[in-house]
Design brief:
The protein is of the alpha+beta class. It has 9 helices and 4 strands. A 4-stranded mixed β-sheet has the order 2-1-3-4. It starts with a strand and ends in a 9-residue tail after the last helix. Bound molecules: glutathione (GSH).
Length: 208
């Protein structure tokens, strides 16, 4: 393993998920930040990123792009850390739920944009209700503070969603809500939030 450098973008939820999985790994890493609101920085990003996007992870000479691939790579680097459940059936479910978060929830993503400022209140847009109901169903099945009992990639991926909803005053009820609150209180998530705020101070107050 070489030295790990994660390249992230300001206000990038994809980056935050990768950063949180790195925090979970217990490995030492550094972060390089692109200001996604700065045209010159974005132009440079387009030149140096394999996809024109953040995040990517450099491990010495190896470059891994896409937050899910980064999470999978860290899972392989740290076999003793149980990033996914040991049970094969549960592992398949965990991977399905991570993939669902990775490629889904498009209405929530576009109509409830991520921001780092003080929470707002209001009714969620009607277009997001189906996806919120899906989260309600998924999160109701969490075993406790962490989805499968031990902190893993699934919790890292859904923590950002838990925060996004809370930013709009959306606290899911019942067991799902208990899981949402547990993710928000998770110290590794709190640390990730502090890092993201330091990297993105100018726009941290308003929804974008
Ligand atoms: N599927 C990719 C998505 C990456 C992505 O969309 N990154 C956005 C930031 S949230 C980005 O780099 N945007 C910069 C741009 O579009 O210029 C992943 O999981 O890493």
């Amino acid at each position: 393993m070489g030295s790990l450098v994660l390249t992230v973008g300001t206000g990038s939820t994809w980056s935050m998920r990768a950063s949180l999985v790195l925090a979970l790994s217990g490995l030492a890493w550094q972060e390089q930040v692109f200001d996604l609101e700065d045209a010159k920085a974005v132009a440079r990003l387009k030149r140096v990123s394999p996809t024109g996007l953040v995040p990517w992870l450099d491990d010495g000479e190896l470059r891994i792009h896409d937050s899910l691939a980064i999470a999978e790579y860290l899972h392989e680097l740290c076999p003793g850390r149980h990033f996914y459940p040991e049970n094969r059936t549960e592992r398949a479910l965990a991977r399905s739920l991570c993939a669902e978060l990775h490629s889904g929830f498009g209405q929530i993503r576009s109509l409830l944009p991520f921001f780092l400022g003080a929470p707002t209140q209001g009714e969620p847009p009607v277009e997001t209700l189906t996806e919120l109901a899906r989260l309600q169903t998924l999160w109701s099945q969490a075993r406790g503070d962490f989805y499968f009992g031990e902190a893993g990639i699934i919790d890292a991926f859904y923590a950002v969603m838990a925060y996004r909803l809370a930013s709009y005053g959306i606290a899911l009820p019942g067991q799902a809500g208990a899981y949402q609150q547990a993710l928000l209180a998770w110290p590794l998530w709190q640390e990730t939030l502090v890092r993201a705020r330091l990297q993105w101070p100018a726009k941290s107050r308003q929804p974008v």
